[in-house]
Write a structure and sequence with these properties.
There is one protein chain. This protein has 90 residues and is of the alpha+beta class. It has a single domain, classed as SH3 type barrels. It contains two helices and five strands. Strands 3-2-1-4-5 form a five-stranded antiparallel sheet. The longest helix has 13 residues.
Length: 90
């Protein structure tokens, strides 16, 4: 199962403007934000991530609700976090 997971933008990679470092439930990882070029996220904002790409910006309340739901589904969420941590692009 593939899930969209909320992540908080921490910073941008200075030499690659389409890449940002995000925090996803304690896992820090670099994702592609190129799909959001018309309205790029800023550090501190939240994005919905799927397969290493930010699909949309979301607000903090929506991110908290999504994380709460994901934590409630148990093993599928844990598996997705493990896959995210193992697939670092840094």
């Amino acid at each position: 199962m593939c899930l969209g997971i909320p992540g908080e933008v921490i910073e941008f990679l200075p030499d690659q403007p389409d890449l940002a470092r995000v925090n996803v439930s304690g896992v820090k990882r670099v994702i592609n934000i190129g799909l959001l070029a018309d309205d790029p996220p800023q550090p501190g904002e939240w994005v919905l991530i799927h397969v290493g790409f930010a699909l949309s910006k979301i607000d903090e309340d929506e991110a908290a609700a999504a994380l709460s739901f994901l934590e409630g589904i148990g093993q599928a969420y844990e598996d997705e976090l493990a896959a995210l941590q193992d697939s670092r692009i840094e």
